[in-house]
Amino acid sequence: MSTKRFRLIGISLFVGLTVLVACQNNLTPTPAAATDMSSPVVAVTTSTPIIFQDTPTPSPTIRVATSQPPLEISFPTPGSELVPIWRPPLEPAPWALGPHDHFYFVRPILVNEVNWPLNDYRYGYIFPDTNTIHTGVDIDAPRGTIIHAAASGTVVWAGYGLLSGDQGNKDDPYGMAVVVRHDFGFEGHRLSTVYAHMEQVLVQVGQRVQAGDPLGLVGDTGFATGPHVHFEVRLETNNYFNTRNPELWMVPPEGDGVLVGKLTNTDGSWLTTHSVAVVADDGTFNEVYTYGPDGVYPDDYYQENMVLSDLPAGNYTVKVVYDGEEYDLKTTVHSGAISYFTFRGTFGYKTALPPLPDTSTWLVTPQP
């Protein structure tokens, strides 16, 4: 199925359209929008999920940005009805072959449907001639397809107004959305996931869900021109300034791996919005862009600005054109694992993993 992409109109572009949206920074959140992640947690040094005990939820608050937010939600165009085909099952969740892996979440769309990110709408993608950033990944699916919870947790938002904090705001770019705050965290930080552009919401705030439970139906509400689910992973604070790349958190299909890269200029500064070609030995071609300059956040360990998931295990060539010269790297992707590389301008590539983080100053907060 071919899918035409259209540019999302970012928050900075529609501020003047309505008084309601123009005043979003002054909105007072409704009590239903539980977004405060202030519960005490445990800081750890491994990727093992932290299980949180049930504790009273503090009064919810919404943190609304005081400057133009780097929010970007995608625009897949409507297409013909998808015909389900066989797809490889996912590895069991949580999945972690390496000490810094954190594949905690199953896909929000079942594996017999298209369930991996659209190539042009990955995390950190910045649209040409704009300053808006895509803070999640988009997963195509037919209208009415069930959207499933990626892991167990509690629903803290259900309905319109996720960005503005006003549940009556049907012009909110997320459209009808659900946020689940999960029962576990990572290195002492709470985790939440976002599911946007629903046609119908099937849960309510305060409801407990398990991995795979229905949350809603795929639609195109909000800033979208075709049915799909916009999926975000948020670390600690539940807002779009605290997102992480979902491709580093969703369990890979059996037989597939993930390619992760940190690309910089020769002087060590970030190489932003730069094309990276990944070519398999059989000629299969993938193109991905490095993250935009602002509004996205790399993994604390990998410090990446490029991720390409769901790559069948095998041999690949990474191609980067820099200063008019092509630099090639031969690499191997392994099933269920992360393959890592760095690129530094005219110095070329390295494949060594990052050094271990210094944990001597980490604080441990006991659970209540």
CATH class membership of the largest domain: Mainly Beta
Query: Number of helical runs?
Result: 2
Helix content: under 10%
CATH topology of the largest domain: Glucose Permease (Domain IIA)
Strand content: 25-35%
Q: Into how many domains do the coordinates divide?
A: 2
CATH architecture of the largest domain: Distorted Sandwich
CATH superfamily of the largest domain: Glucose Permease (Domain IIA)
The SSE string, one letter per element, is EHHEEEEEEEEEEEEEEEEEEE
Biggest sheet, open or closed, and with what strands and sense? 10 strands, antiparallel
Number of strands: 20
Question: Could you describe the 3D structure shown?
Answer:
- The chain has 368 residues and is mainly β.
- The chain folds into 2 domains: 251 residues, Glucose Permease (Domain IIA) (Distorted Sandwich), CATH 2.70.70; 95 residues, Immunoglobulin-like.
- 2% of the residues lie in helices and 31% in strands.
- The chain contains 2 helices and 20 strands.
- Strands 2, 4, 5, 6, 7, 8, 9, 10, 11 and 12 form a 10-stranded antiparallel beta sheet that branches. Strands 16-13-19-20 form a 4-stranded mixed beta sheet, with no helix packed on it. A 4-stranded antiparallel beta sheet has the order 15-14-17-18, with no helix packed on it.
- Strand 11 and strand 12 form a beta hairpin.
- The longest helix has 4 residues.
- It is globular.
Spell out the blueprint of helices and strands.
Elements: E1 5-6, H1 11-14, H2 19-22, E2 50-51, E3 75-76, E4 137-140, E5 146-148, E6 153-159, E7 176-186, E8 189-201, E9 208-209, E10 214-218, E11 228-235, E12 243-244, E13 256-264, E14 275-280, E15 285-289, E16 306-312, E17 314-322, E18 325-333, E19 338-344, E20 349-350
Parallel strand pairs: 13-19
Antiparallel strand pairs: 1-3, 2-7, 4-11, 5-10, 6-7, 6-9, 7-8, 8-10, 8-11, 11-12, 13-16, 14-15, 14-17, 17-18, 19-20
